Amino acid sequence: MNETTQQAIVQTLRERILSGELSPGQRLVEAHIAQWLGVSRTPLRYALSVLSSEGLLDRSGSRGYVVRRFSVRDVLDAIDVRGVLEGLAARSVAESGVSPALAAALDDCLREGDDIFDQKRLKQGDDVRYAQMNGRFHALIVDAAQNQAVTAALSLNDKIPFVSPFTIAFDESARERQFMMLMYAHRQHHAIVDALKKGEGARVDALMKEHTHISKESLNLSLPALHLIAGAA
Question: pTM of the full predicted structure?
Answer without folding.
Answer: 0.76
